[in-house]
Each structure stands twice: as C-alpha cells, then as structure tokens.
Amino acid sequence: MTGRFAGQVAVVTGAGSGIGRACAQRLAAEGAHVVVNDIDADAAHGTVAAVLGAGGTAEAEAGDVLETGYVQDLFDRIMARHKRIDIVHNNVGFGDRLSITDTSDETWARGIDGNLGATFRGVRAAIRAMAPQGRGAVVNTSSLAGLLKVPGVAPYYGVAKAAVIQLTREAAVEAGQYGIRVNAVVPGSVRAASLERYLGTGERWAAYMEQLPLHRMVEPADIANVVAFLASDEAASITGVAIPVDSGMSAVMYQPDID
C-alpha cells in the first residue's frame, strides 16, 4: 500500500473483470476504498475478494448502469454511507461484430446508451457529488475504436466511444470551476478472454502482437496504471485529455499493399 489514495473513496463501474477489475485493484492497492460495480453480482464480489485478499478495502454494488435512475441512486447511496466520492472510473462498455446494415434500431439505441449514456450518467452523478467537495477526479474509458474504424466491429461502439472523448472535454470544461478533473483512457487491444477467443492463443496471437509497434499486448494493468495516474494529484494540471494505451497502434497509418 503506497497510500497515494489513502482516505479516498473510488467508484469503478464494470469492475467485475478485465480493465475494471485491474483498476479497482490498483486504486485499492494505493489506499482507496473502492466501490465495485458490475451487472454480474458474482463478478463484483470476486473483485472485492481479490482486493480484500491483497489487504485493501472494497464493497460490491451489483447493478445495471443502463437501468433508469440506477446510476444516480448508486452515487446517492455511496454518499450516504461514506460522505464523499473522490475518484470515479466510468468503465462500462460492450460491443459486437456487426455491420451497419445488420444493426437494428434497437441494437443501435442500446449500444449508444450502454457505451455513451451510461458514461454520461456516471459523469453527471460524479460532478453532483464532487462539486460541494471542491475536488475530484473522473476517468472515462473510451477505445481506439473511437479514433479509427475497426473493421467488423459494431458501428454503435466506435461512434459511442468517440463521443465519450468529446463528453470528457465537455465535462472537463464545465467541472473545472469545482476543482474536478475529467480525463479519458483510450485502450487498444487489451488481453482479455474475449480477445483470446477471437485470436486464439497460438500462432495467430503471436502474429497479432508482432504487428504492434511495441510487440506486446496491452494488459489490463497497463490501463490501470494510467487511470491511477490520472486520478492522482500527480496529474493535478491535466484535464480534458484522452490518452491512448495501445502499444503504438494509433501511431501507425494503414498502408494498402501495392506489391
């Protein structure tokens, strides 16, 4: 425990696995009491168990951030219990492999709300809680798919993740007067069960990594490192930015093969 976040309360949504779990563990390891939200109650409690096993403190709040009124109710409950919220990581998101022409109105609406609307509600609730405190840090999870089109990925995902970056700027400007900083992290391909199912773990996985400028896959802990930095006082003058964590993918311009 380094104590960088000692005495602070952090909220991480979508924290039952992957990036969210890694961030919850990292914030707790540095002293924060972490409220772990996930739609999957077992996954949320699994993250809490991992935090407690490492000597940190955490509590589970299972629930769906797409449900009307849930996010504000969640933040109200946390404020009633702890009287403060210092760090919020809006991490919920989901995608699929789908073309524009195969995307129904219902799928589009749910995808935009799940990847953008849920983040908006988290940002709004965070500002409401933090403004009277005169300080706070919010970090939103965008995606490299919000900067560049990823072939095959459902259109709602990239569009919503692009909008998350603009939402981050909007909130940073509005909330700055209250001492609240709002930033975003932009993951590239992150090691996760879903990516392993898609690529496999043998030659295809190795070939994929070899094409990345750093020749390594992004790990959930890599994202957690940046989230922790952005949430800390070391980033006291940083707000409204979106930082790619992608092993250099966003630095490469696609070149058609002409040989």
TrEMBL record:
CDD domains: SDR_c (cd05233). Signal peptide: none annotated. Belongs to the short-chain dehydrogenases/reductases (SDR) family. It comes from the Bacteria. PROSITE patterns: ADH_SHORT. Transmembrane segments: none annotated. PANTHER family: DEHYDROGENASES, SHORT CHAIN, OXIDOREDUCTASE UCPA. InterPro entries: NAD(P)-bd_dom_sf, Sc_DH/Rdtase_CS, SDR_fam. This is SDR family oxidoreductase. Keywords: Oxidoreductase. It holds the Pfam family adh_short_C2.
